[in-house]
Predict the 3D structure of the following.
Amino acid sequence: MGKNNTTILIIAMVLTTAMIMEEAKSYPICNTDTNDLQKCSPAVTGNSPPAPGPDCCAVVKSADLECLCPYLSRSGIDPSKIKSVLASCGVGNPSCLSW
């Protein structure tokens, strides 16, 4: 591999790493952050999701669920699965989960 090809390969690797890191950024929302919300993803996806783990419950307990209502209603997640996670974590339903 020539010097120019090696330089191009290194630049491509750096750019790829930068893009991956950009995608992994977390954004604060409703007293939690977007990466933390992903800890509950297994418990609300699929036909028979597992019970939420302790990390998910910690996120649910610290999040402002009323603030999350607009996002929950547009998330496409089955409300019964969200309610199940909240119940398993010992958290009451926000007002928007009456649907």
Remarks:
- The CA atoms of residues 15 and 21 lie 10 Å apart.
- The first strand starts at residue 28 and ends at 29.
